[in-house]
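Hi X.,

You mentioned you wanted examples for the new student's onboarding notes, showing what a folding record looks like when two proteins sit in one file. Here is a clean example. The first protein comes first, with its sequence line followed by its structure tokens.
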Amino acid sequence: MSFDLTDRPWIGVLRDDGSQDELSLRQVFAQADRLRRVEGDLATQEFALMRLLLAVAHDALDGPGDIEEWAELWEDPDCFAPVQSYLEEHRDRFDLLHPVAPFLQTAGLRTAKDEVFSLSRIVADVPAGEPFFSARMPDVKRLSFAEAARWVVHVHAYDTSGIKSGMTGDDRVKGGKVYPLGTGWAGGLGGVFVEGGTLRETLLLNLVAADTEELDSSSADRPAWRREPCGPGSDGRSATGLRDLYTWQSRRVRLHHDTDGVHGVVLGYGDPLVSRNMHRSEPMTAWRRSPAQEKKLGQSPVYLPLEHDPARSAWRGIAALVADRLEDGGGAEGASRLRPGILEWIARLVTGGHLSRHFLVRARVVGVSYGTQQSVIDEVVDDRLAMPVVLLHRQDRTYARQAIAAAEDADRAVRALGDLAADLARAAGAEQEGPKAAARAEGFDALEHLYRGWLSAMADAPDPFEHRYVWQRQVRETVGRLGDRLIAAAGDAAWEGRTDTDKKGRTHWLNAGLADVWFRGRLAGALGDPDSAGPGGSGGGAAAPADEGPAGPEPPGLPETGHIPTAPEVHA
């Protein structure tokens, strides 16, 4: 039996007319200029498939070696023609059912008891023990060969951790089991890649040249299908470059099938990979310094992937995407954050004039939140942020700084709205955290669409400072209306008020009227004087540097508040 992935349809795509289809590897590259994007069963599957396609493109083109080679590919409508002969040359390794070297699998993989497990072990939309929201409830009995191929790619990237069955021949087995070695490689990343108008543009925009300073490359780099098939254990090697990393075999897999499809799987640990200080190898994530790891290891700096917070939309974390490493005062070696290498590459293209400053790209944000010691998938993060590439220009940081500051404007205004909700609850003698959280969530929801539209329009803004002033007026009006609603709905108890004691032991009378006055003061401090004729206003909110909180003193009795960071919140 054979299922040749170079010729058989298995990759989901969205065509430029909006219709969906499944294509083979050959068809995907041949029709890339007529496709919008790859589609998967989950966003994480799309991310894993994109990396697979990029590994094919890098290897088939053997490059690009430098930015000039990339520019030639960008101008050539038939730039992926060499992929066809490449796939023909390696087609045996793309056979999902090959008897000796099945695609991304280990032939003959078995446990000591010859167990064959349910396909729910590789199908991530069936949470272990909680299948109630899955269309496949309560189990996965069978997959088509096309579906199985997609989930094999996905399991190497995003499989959960936990104790797994030991494979015969793996020297890590103890008592028939292998103890936790971590998730699949992509599961530890705050995944980021760039989307263009077509799949062809998307592939090329993410095709990083080998001479990129921020990334290490090696002549020995090659993808999984150009290496010897993996055995049941691990040789402990490190990744050699992008092609290797994009197809990293973090698991050992063997599909069990018949003539009609796949009905079982054997799954064990493969090659673990430590994420510490891999920022010069992995371009599809932002990175953060980890003081805890630096102290533990006695070395500095130590960078770890900056994972996405499922509760935080991409626009609120824009600083992690566009802030230059030198802008936090730490210097090139001591930066607290590094933006994704993919965006550094786009910055190089726009700074070198290979992309217009008005060119619009979408930063695609994909990630996973694991639970219970990384043994289950709790949430999948999937977001897009359309932005002009001028935000990434290395010699003109003005637009990027104003985009970051605008997100901080929103944070400060929404914080004022949350404080209003808490003050109204205090005035009524009610619990504060629930109303405060609800008001903040409503505020961010109301501003999200506005910010995304404002950011996209930045490409045509002749004055980024004036553009930000327009944004501040939108924020003031939107958050002000939400505040009006809270006050109108406050109820008699809040309007009558009560004696309140603040954190410093000061006693004062608090009612809805005073809470309203405080809210207007906070909003003016966050966004400037609404009656001012230009950017900044007399309140100073618009002109304040991005790392400062709202201007002006806090009213008596208000909770002490500090700056809210715009980068995704993570823990060491």
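Then the second protein repeats the pattern, sequence line and then tokens:
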Amino acid sequence: MSAIPAALATATGLGGAGAVAGFVLPYRLRVPVAGVLTAGVGAGGVVAGVAALGGNRWTAVYSGLLALAGAHLAVDALAGVFMAVAGAVVGAVAVYGIGYAAGHGAHGLGSRTAQAALPLFALGLVLVPVAASVSTFLVLWELMALGSLVLVLAEHRKRPSVRQAGVWYAVMTHLGLVLLLAGFALFAAQAGGETFAVLRAGAQHMSPAVRGLVFVLVALAFTSKAGAVPLHAWLPRAHPEAPSPVSALMSAAMVNLGVYGLVRTGLDLLGGGPAWWWLGLLAVGGASAVYGILQAAMASDLKRLLAYSTSENMGLVLIGVGASGLFTSYGDGPLAALALAAALLHVVNHSAFKALLFCAAGSVLRSTGLRDLDLLGGLRSRMPATAGLFALAALGAVALPPGNGFISEWLLLQSLIHGLEVPGVAVAVVLPLSVALVALSAGIAAAVFVKALGVGFFARPRDERAASAREAPPLMLTGMGLLAVGIVGLAVVPGLLGDGLDRAVGAVGLPGSGVLTGG
């Protein structure tokens, strides 16, 4: 019997219980109880995701759960990647968040509203990849979006900038919803149904113009959620102003679902498409990677720097997805599989090091009240554990060995370089440029994180609050330690993901790459 339905049912029950506990319990109880239940949601996501990566599949229809259409659910290896990543991030960050919220009193992240929204947001992160119909997907997508909006606004009483960020986020996330509604409504009308199975079959009989319009609409929505240009404006505003555990969840788990939506819709449901779809996505990815890391280089706000770094890394992932679609359009399945495997591996690696970076930045903020690198300094001696963990995550972010980000960026470059053998003028122009953009972003990323470490942790303190900083409490260090273990594991034994990534690539009809397994 598959563990998937039991794990998902457990996660759903714990998420509901966590929301109730967060709303009704007094402050001293609601933070630890809601935090533990949220961690349970993450554990359920990990179990279900790992089972799917191991080859298990599951489908179910609950006709009475959603009016008219019912709830259609399905889990395959592609969904498993994103469920497992979201679950792991949720579990570690929930432990960290208990210690973080305990120092903020009954307001902000410790408030009833925030503690009730946290497990529901976590549940949305885990369940979005499980949806197997348009209506189910949109309901779960909106659960995730509204939960994150409530949490972004958690500290609105402290700073007016939080309210401004919340307005930006609300507008951009619901612009994305409108685009999704338009794209999926057109898709369902042309295919004759709204389940993913019907969409997959109906896409083969749609006209090229309609298929192209559907792809453009949903791609705009999904790249916005991934923090890619040009619809990225919410990300550098919302991530810095959200409580740090929420920033970690958004930057290490939520943005991934934009990538999931692109892969599921573009490569699976639409069955791939002409080269211009993927050339456009390559352009968006390249622009996002360079723009994001250049903005990070100029940022002095530590959390804003990390937010722009997320745009850069999601740009690299989109380059991989775009290259995969481009190779598919030219009939080169093995290269398409390699590019997609590299993109999915970078999703995993980025989630690990970015969650730890945001948690470490949150520890600094909680201890000093500062985000401005120009006022920090001296933290290496005053917060040695946090400094060491930040350095470990930064090593992954600069994509140098032995950091965990190295292998995925290396595979991405290999797929682009080998793709130069594919005939075609567009390929001959775009792929060398993509290689240059990946290399450029990696070089600037090294400078960015050298600055963050050197100025924030190793330089002399330039503010009394930095000079009197204290190490984070044990629960926060425990959550960061769990993320650090994941980073080290991904760096030392990336081959453990090989079979699962092969199955995930195969879920969209591509041959397994076999790169990490030696196949």
